[in-house]
Amino acid sequence: MSTAIDTRAARLRDRLRGALVAAAATPMTRSGEVDLDLAERYFHRLVATGADALAVLAHTGRGPFLTAGLRRELILRARTAGVPVIVGVGGSSGEEAAARTVADARTAAELGADGVLVFPSQGDRVAEHEAVWQAAGLPMIAFDLYTAPCPPAVLAEILRHPGVAGLKTALLSDAMGCQETIAMTREAGRLAITGEDRMFGPSLLWGAEAALVGIAAASVETTAAVMRAFGADDLRAFEKASARLDRLAAATFTAPMEGYVQRMLWLAAAEGLIPESHAHDPYGPGLPEDERAAVIAASA
What global pTM score does this model have? Predict the structure, then answer.
């Protein structure tokens, strides 16, 4: 049964239905320096190659590690791309984590973001969403993540919140959990958003109505092709596009899983989206250099 939804959340839900939201990386040097002009060009290139919206400062963008000042600038640069901008909030740890989540959401609202993606917290998740809503008044996308899956009863309560526009599921290898979460989201009248890079095609078949994925930090066209074929009911094209995306996902979303950010940056550099100098993830695990060739080969 659908539950009451705030008009602001309903507008974002409807605007994102059928959309590919690229979970953008934050191009950095090996030492973690960010060139804002370069980042802005990268955001524009994601849109030019098929992204309908941008999610910045999410996990792929290493949002929890970045300073408040840098976060502000990246939000402003993303907004110049002319598409909806969703800002990742939360994901930090420690005693000040809840306060930072609220502060980041308030900043996103002040800078004109269209919504926030709320990272799973270690505390009261329902209270976290309410605090974000009261502070910012921005439509929220809830997040069911494989490292901290949300108990069904808690998930149901979050989906009843009037400020929740949709829910992103990223359960990695839990097909049953993904199906159940998508069904719950749709039943609540919210937008079911796939974040399932390794179950992308199947999640659309299971009812996902939009996508917000890290695999679209590069090779956006590869991801968009799957959604276009699915929307057009072109089974043969869907099968072909899904197989290509699956090959890429198998090479990028693999152990160590945190290495996917570096792998996507390698790919972004190979595609000319960013220069080699800014294709580094200083916050992820070290990866052997010979892995790069396998990633790039999988995108062919």
Answer: 0.96
